[in-house]
């Protein structure tokens, strides 16, 4: 097999890249080790920055997002039983975010790729990237029980944190920056209406809680069921738990009670409960692999960097990386100049490190580490007081949360 761009991984990074290249008339092949159902079912993030939503629209992949997604103009910070709304448009000159699950972004991009794009091979596991430092890199992969080789002009590793692409960069040429956290998130999906119209980030002595949501699922009532509800609401909720927690150690009642306690307020707010349909524990890590390029091999998304989910940056960084690569390759194909490809790693890392900074800040601001001292508790409250009382501090949060325009970060 032969293609211009070999893409490893059909998560948001690989799928969006394939779409951007297709629209520019550049052929690619996507190799995905899992099956379609797994990729479309995998619960991950749910917040799209303004820039990500704009890229999806420009790529012709935003129609269902605009129809079913929820535009959010703010979030609520909650601490000491107090509530404070951060008003995104007022602080950023009009920017907002879109609540639209990563699963739905992947479904939309898979449908487009299968209908209009180049080959998207599921259950095709990349075994190794070879010749990355030559003009003819190739991907050895296994598909339908047979080993094969995909000859490429460029390879983009969109294969996530556990992928193989990164291994093709010699260790002597790389630097890894990493921090792990002594806690993770117990994430649940519940058939319950949101308890607040926007996301709630709660700092509490018992630990962090996040109240998020998914757009309501439209039911198609039959004529006989005219009196039944036409929409099913879904809440996406998270609790900070100690590292290594077994989700089965938390029954539904314990989860709801703990969420209620950590989100307590002085007013009459209350938590909407309902049947929990999914329960998972996710560890937390900050990770950056530099450089994000070696010869004709480029890394994008979780293959190159990981952020703690507190700042909702993972999916948005992946989108920014592949938009940067697509723009650079299109420039090279049209002008013959490799300048943007040569600047790929540096361009992405400027934005990556700003997202790492913001994600670390939000995580240490809102989570109470095991063994936290009273000094650290007071420091968290002082940091929160600063944000809710200073337009400058609040603006920093709003700008980072809604995202820096692609190609410009932290300027
Ligand atoms: N061969 C082929 N496919 C592979 C291989 C391999 N050797 N290894 C991993 N993959 C696939 C995985 O099955 C997955 O579908 O690569 C894909 C990587 O997707 P993600 O992990 O979602 O990474 P990315 O596309 O960068 O998106 C980042 O996803 O993990 C979340 O929080 C993260 O929201 C962020 C987003
Ligand atoms: C989600 O809805 O899954 C979500 C929202 C905000 C975050 C993390 C996850 O910071």
From TrEMBL:
<protein>
    <submittedName>
        <fullName>4-hydroxybenzoate 3-monooxygenase</fullName>
        <ecNumber>1.14.13.2</ecNumber>
    </submittedName>
</protein>
<dbReference type="GO" id="GO:0018659">
    <property type="term" value="F:4-hydroxybenzoate 3-monooxygenase activity"/>
</dbReference>
<dbReference type="InterPro" id="IPR002938">
    <property type="entry name" value="FAD-bd"/>
</dbReference>
<dbReference type="InterPro" id="IPR036188">
    <property type="entry name" value="FAD/NAD-bd_sf"/>
</dbReference>
<keyword id="KW-0560">Oxidoreductase</keyword>
<dbReference type="Pfam" id="PF01494">
    <property type="entry name" value="FAD_binding_3"/>
</dbReference>
<dbReference type="GO" id="GO:0071949">
    <property type="term" value="F:FAD binding"/>
</dbReference>
<keyword id="KW-0285">Flavoprotein</keyword>
<feature type="domain" description="FAD-binding">
    <location>
        <begin position="2"/>
        <end position="359"/>
    </location>
</feature>
<dbReference type="InterPro" id="IPR050641">
    <property type="entry name" value="RIFMO-like"/>
</dbReference>
<keyword id="KW-0503">Monooxygenase</keyword>
<keyword id="KW-0274">FAD</keyword>
């Amino acid at each position: 097999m032969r293609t211009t761009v070999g893409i490893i991984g059909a998560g948001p990074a690989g799928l969006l890249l394939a779409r951007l290249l297709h629209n520019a008339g550049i052929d690619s092949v996507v190799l995905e080790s899992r099956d379609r159902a797994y990729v479309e079912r995998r619960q991950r993030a749910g917040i799209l920055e303004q820039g990500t939503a704009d890229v999806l629209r420009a790529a012709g992949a935003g129609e269902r997002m605009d129809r079913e997604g929820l535009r959010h103009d703010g979030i609520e910070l909650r601490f000491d039983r107090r509530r404070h709304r951060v008003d995104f448009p007022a602080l950023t000159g009009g920017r907002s975010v879109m609540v639209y699950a990563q699963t739905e972004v992947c479904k939309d991009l898979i449908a487009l790729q299968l209908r209009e794009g180049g080959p998207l091979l599921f259950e095709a596991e990349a075994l190794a990237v070879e010749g990355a430092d030559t003009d003819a890199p190739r991907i050895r992969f296994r598909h339908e029980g047979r080993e094969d080789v995909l000859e490429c002009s460029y390879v983009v590793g969109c294969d996530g944190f556990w992928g193989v692409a990164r291994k093709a960069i010699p260790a002597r040429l790389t630097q890894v920056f990493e921090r792990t956290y002594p806690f993770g998130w117990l994430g649940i999906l519940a058939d319950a209406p949101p308890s607040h119209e926007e996301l709630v980030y709660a700092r509490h002595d018992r630990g962090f809680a996040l109240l998020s949501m998914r757009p309501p699922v439209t039911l198609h009532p039959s004529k006989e069921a005219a009196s039944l509800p036409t929409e099913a609401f879904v809440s996406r909720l998270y609790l900070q738990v100690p590292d290594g927690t077994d989700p089965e150690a938390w029954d539904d009642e314990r989860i709801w009670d703990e969420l209620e306690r950590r989100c307590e307020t002085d007013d009459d707010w209350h938590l909407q409960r309902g049947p929990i349909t999914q329960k998972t524990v996710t560890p937390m890590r900050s990770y950056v692999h530099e450089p994000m390029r070696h010869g004709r091999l480029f890394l994008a998304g979780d293959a190159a960097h990981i952020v703690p989910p507190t700042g909702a940056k993972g999916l948005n960084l992946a989108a920014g990386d592949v938009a940067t690569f697509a723009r650079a390759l299109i420039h090279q194909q049209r002008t013959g100049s490799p300048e943007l490809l040569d600047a790929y790693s540096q361009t992405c890392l400027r934005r990556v490190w700003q997202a790492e900074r913001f994600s670390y800040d939000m995580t240490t601001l809102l989570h109470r580490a095991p063994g936290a001292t009273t000094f650290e508790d007071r420091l968290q409250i002082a940091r929160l007081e600063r944000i809710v009382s200073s337009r400058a501090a609040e603006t920093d949060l709003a700008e980072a949360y809604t995202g820096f325009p692609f190609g410009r970060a932290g300027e």
